[in-house]
């Protein structure tokens, strides 16, 4: 059965490469032995993995997003714990263990994504209700929906989301997949404002563009306009007191993903955005990146990129 695997210290220790004279982040992070410890834990940030690509495949994408979690966690645990980032600020909760459905048809995959939603959102709600900030490494962008639902339920109101992405993920309500997480969140009134930054004009269909035009909850800055001077500050001003930060790694040029792009944000653009805006957000969700794709493409850099983004978020929030 699908479940949440909660990590022990032994699980963490197996991922650390110790070095004399240094303290790695993984040597300082916290773990849980009981859910009752969550609220009283010193750590402000709770790290969680959703290593699946069922939602990507349910959207006719290429499998691979399931590969990012463990290498990214290992990369993060082996950075330095020092004056700039103390590992005690982070609690590593664990990861969801999700089995492929027996029915591998599009319908079967979409039904499975709905089951993943129901597995994920109560954990996100519980983390936020305990006064902590979830940092989630995916996985497909289908998991934006349970992230949004968890934050909304914990705050007992619809919430805002700032999504840095090449795609709006506002496809039809045709069964759950990685391309319609925000459509379902809007339908079920978990979203108060949906702010999209970096959408590519070439890869969002006319129906989605008309939907954005017609709904005052939806605001966008296109990547094509960023190239001639637009930026994210016009969107940030519309954030509510409870807001989520979504980063789909397919918006960054040459990062391995199902929708890898040669034209997109530079890594340092995204790092700068996080470092200047982290305190505005109640969670961070990094999705769609991969270290190995089903079609044979591989990248050793994706995991290190994720480690940079997570560490930037924690540092910017706590300083």
Give helix % range.
25-40%
* Outline: globular
Helix-strand topology string: EHEHHEHEHEHEHEHHEHEH
- Enumerate the spans where pLDDT stays under 50 for 5 or more consecutive residues: none
CATH A-level architecture: 3-Layer(aba) Sandwich
Describe the largest sheet.
9 strands, mixed
Distance between the termini: 41 Å
Assign the structural class, choosing from mainly alpha, mainly beta, alpha/beta, alpha+beta, or little secondary structure: alpha/beta
CATH class: Alpha Beta
Question: Overall pLDDT, averaged?
Answer: 97
Name the CATH superfamily assignment: Ureohydrolase domain
Q: Any idea what the radius of gyration is?
A: 18 Å
Count of separate structural domains: 1
Number of strands: 9
Per DSSP, what share of the residues sits in E-state strands of 2 or more residues? 15-25%
* Strand arrangement in the largest pleated sheet: 1-3-2-4-9-8-5-6-7
Can you describe what's shown?
With 319 residues, the chain is of the alpha/beta class. It has a single domain (3-318), classed as Ureohydrolase domain (Arginase, Chain A). It contains 11 helices and 9 strands. The protein has a 9-stranded mixed beta sheet, sandwiched between helices. The radius of gyration is 18 Å and the shape is globular. The termini are far apart. The model has no long low-confidence stretch (mean pLDDT 97).
């Amino acid at each position: 059965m699908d479940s949440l695997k909660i990590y022990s210290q032994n699980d963490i220790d197996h991922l650390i490469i110790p070095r004399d004279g240094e303290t790695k982040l993984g040597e300082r992070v916290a773990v849980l032995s009981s859910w009752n410890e969550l609220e009283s834990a010193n750590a402000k940030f709770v790290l969680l993995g959703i290593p699946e690509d069922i939602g990507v495949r349910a959207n006719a994408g290429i499998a691979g997003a399931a590969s990012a979690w463990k290498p990214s966690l290992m990369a993060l645990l082996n950075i330095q714990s020092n004056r700039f980032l103390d590992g005690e600020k982070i609690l590593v909760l664990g990861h969801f263990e999700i089995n492929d459905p027996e029915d591998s048809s599009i319908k079967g995959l979409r039904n499975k994504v709905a089951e993943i939603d129901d597995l994920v959102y109560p954990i996100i709600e519980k983390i936020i209700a305990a006064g902590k900030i979830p940092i989630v490494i995916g996985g497909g962008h289908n998991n934006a929906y349970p992230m949004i639902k968890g934050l909304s339920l914990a705050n007992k109101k619809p919430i805002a989301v700032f999504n840095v992405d090449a795609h709006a993920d506002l496809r039809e309500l045709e069964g759950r997949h990685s391309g319609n997480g925000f459509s379902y969140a809007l339908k079920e009134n978990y979203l108060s404002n949906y702010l999209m930054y970096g959408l590519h004009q070439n890869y969002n269909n006319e129906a989605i563009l008309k939907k954005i035009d017609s709904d005052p909850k939806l605001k966008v800055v296109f990547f094509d306009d960023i190239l001639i001077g637009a930026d994210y500050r016009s969107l940030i001003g519309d954030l509510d007191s409870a807001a989520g930060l979504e980063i789909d790694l397919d918006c960054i040029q040459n990062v391995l993903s199902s929708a890898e792009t040669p034209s997109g944000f530079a890594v340092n653009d995204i790092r700068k955005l996080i470092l200047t805006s982290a305190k505005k957000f109640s969670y961070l969700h990094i999705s769609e990146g991969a270290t190995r794709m089903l079609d044979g493409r591989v990248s050793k850099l994706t995991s290190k990129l994720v480690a940079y983004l997570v560490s930037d978020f924690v540092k910017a929030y706590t300083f």
